């Protein structure tokens, strides 16, 4: 998922390649944090937050799927599961390996979808959510991708703190 040979969007010219490279870097940091973690560790809370490593991976998977759907479909409809709070929890019976496989597949789908877009100026209406303003808001594909980068970076940082509390490892030390 993190190498240019696996992402068709990284071979595109100009800005699109740069944006996708930045997203790939953030994804890679998250994957480093999850390296050599057991299912029990992935499901364990280590801070006052409800977040776990497995829950973060699950949430970022949902984020990739939902935002790619919004970007590609462009119909302004709320994607299924966008507001589902279970996306933040590693459910009993789920494995980290399965969650990471789903994350990789979602990332690949995002990469392929971005490669197929006419350009990053592609604009779509956002779905209505409880926090939406009354008027329809439009975002470009660029802004959606920047949102995914921010979301991935923020949660990769959360994951790093959780991992360090689990076993003392940090992403920086594991690079």
Write a short abstract of this structure.
By secondary structure, the chain is mainly alpha-helical. Helix content is 56%, strand content 3%.
Description:
The chain is mainly α and 175 residues long. It is built from 6 helices and 2 strands, in the order ααααββαα. Strands 1-2 form a two-stranded antiparallel ribbon. Helix 3 packs parallel to helix 4 and helix 3 runs antiparallel to helix 5. The longest helix is centred in the C-terminal third of the chain and has 27 residues, at 141-167. The chain is globular and about 45 Å long. The relative contact order is 0.20. The model is unreliable at 1-5 (pLDDT under 50). This is DinB family protein. InterPro entries: DinB/YfiT-like (IPR034660), MST-like (IPR007061).
**Based on DSSP secondary structure assignment, what is the total number of beta strands?**
2
What Rg do the Cα atoms give?
16 Å
Global geometry = globular
Distance between the termini: 16 Å
Order of helices and strands: HHHHEEHH
Given the structure, what is the number of helices?
A: 6
List the strand order in the largest sheet. Answer: 1-2
> Poorly predicted ranges (pLDDT <50, ≥5 residues)?
1-5
Structural class: mainly alpha
The biggest beta sheet is recorded as: 2 strands, antiparallel
What assembly state would you assign to the polypeptide chains in this entry?
A: single chain
Helix percent reads 55-70%
Pfam families: MST
Protein name: DinB family protein
Organism: Streptomyces bobili
């Amino acid at each position: 998922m993190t190498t240019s040979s696996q992402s068709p969007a990284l071979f595109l010219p100009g800005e699109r390649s740069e944006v996708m490279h930045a997203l790939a870097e953030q994804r890679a940091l998250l994957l480093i944090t999850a390296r050599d973690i057991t299912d029990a560790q992935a499901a364990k809370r280590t801070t006052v937050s409800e977040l776990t490593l497995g829950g973060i991976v699950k949430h970022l998977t949902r984020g990739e799927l939902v935002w790619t759907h919004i970007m590609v479909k462009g119909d302004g409809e709320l994607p299924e599961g966008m507001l589902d709070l279970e996306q933040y929890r590693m459910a009993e019976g789920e494995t980290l390996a399965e969650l990471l496989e789903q994350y990789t597949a979602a990332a690949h789908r995002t990469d392929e979808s971005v490669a197929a877009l006419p350009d990053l100026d592609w604009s779509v209406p956002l779905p209505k959510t409880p926090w939406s303003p009354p008027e329809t808001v439009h975002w470009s594909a660029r802004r959606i991708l920047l949102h995914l980068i921010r979301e991935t970076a923020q949660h990769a940082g959360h994951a790093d703190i959780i991992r360090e509390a689990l076993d003392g490892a940090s992403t920086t030390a594991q690079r």
